[in-house]
Design goal:
By secondary structure, the chain is mainly β. The chain is built from 2 helices and 18 strands. A hairpin with a 7-residue loop joins strand 10 and strand 11.
Length: about 325
């Protein structure tokens, strides 16, 4: 952004972005269009692209007003035609009416993309409005107001492809052990894209790589080995279905209580992100021996029974000695 003195900046603001009079004069036939990438949902970032077109009329000044709905805040200007970003722009975190102004009128047709973040409570639907303000030789003129409606997420996640996820886990849930997880997904005939499988690991557990099994595939994007929390497997192009993928996870140091794995497949058909059923798999620690510790080598065997027998023999012998003492 161009560095300007305060007095000069104030003058430009007064000339270009003074309170709008909502004039109907539009001698340059200015038209504002807007597109939004992303979905209006809690915590989401939306990328908003505006396109300004006009006839051959020469402009002396050019500015843009955008009014964000409540709970949506400005992040940054991301790009503009020929790098002609506005000299005056909102600050990150600003909401309500945003004002953008150019000291030098940009080339037309003009395109700019800026981003906003949904920080407040999500409504069923909200409106984003805006208007271009400009000057030719006289007073301020305006394009028509452009309104874009942002719809909130549906109350129940869509699953038009009827994606069905199942999960199988093999291996003993013991401290620092490796478990193998196999995910299988089926769906109907509807084409899907931007497919990803997201899994939430128990606290302290980490991803340890994919497992090659007959019939399984490898995703284009994989979690980093050693990562925990939510991990994701993604495909650049739609994979074949039924879909099967296997991976390893390493148990954390604590294997004393029940935990669970949960996850779902996310995808798109033509619109918003959709989701399969969410599958939760409960995992119980390996069985404990009678002494309160995990049996050596895994499951209980003959060695444990022998130890029990020896303890019982010792108890009976001690009891016999006590009985003998009491009779004398």
């Amino acid at each position: 952004m161009i560095r300007m003195g305060r007095a000069f900046t104030a003058l430009i603001a007064a000339l270009l972005i003074a309170p709008a009079a909502w004039s109907q004069v539009n001698s340059a036939n200015m038209v504002l269009t807007r597109s939004v990438e992303g979905f209006y949902d809690a915590g989401a970032t939306l990328h908003i692209t505006i396109v300004a077109t006009k006839d051959t009329t020469q402009l002396l000044a050019f500015a843009l007003r955008e009014t964000l709905p409540e709970g949506v805040e400005f992040k940054e200007v991301e790009s503009a035609t020929f790098g002609q970003t506005p000299s005056i722009r909102p600050a990150p975190g600003d909401g309500g009416e945003l004002q953008f102004a150019w000291i030098n009128v940009p080339a037309f047709p003009f395109t700019m993309t800026y981003s906003v973040e949904v920080t407040g409570e999500v409504q069923e639907s909200v409106d984003l409005t805006g208007q271009i303000e400009y000057r030719t030789t006289g007073g301020r003129e305006f394009s028509e107001v452009t309104t874009t409606t942002l719809d909130g997420p549906p109350p129940v996640p869509l699953n038009t492809a009827e994606a069905l996820l199942t999960r199988a886990v093999s291996g003993a849930y013991e401290a620092n052990a490796l478990l193998e997880v196999t995910l299988n997904v089926t769906k109907n005939e509807i084409a899907v894209n931007e497919v990803s499988l997201k899994e939430s690991l128990p606290e302290g557990w980490t991803y340890d790589g994919v497992v090659a099994q007959p019939g399984t595939v490898v995703a284009d994007t994989l979690p980093a080995v050693g990562s925990g929390g939510e991990i994701a497997f993604g495909w650049n192009a739609p994979p074949d279905f039924p879909l099967s993928i296997a991976y390893r996870i390493r148990v954390g140091n604590d294997a004393s209580s029940a935990v669970s794995l949960s996850g779902a497949m996310e995808y798109r058909t033509t619109g918003r992100v959709e989701r399969s059923n969410v599958v939760t798999t409960a995992l119980e620690p390996a069985k404990m021996g009678f002494c309160g510790c995990a049996p050596a080598g895994g499951a209980a065997g003959g060695g444990d029974l022998l130890l029990v027998a020896l303890v019982l023999v010792s108890l009976f012998a001690a009891r016999a000695r006590l009985d003998a003492c009491s009779r004398t």
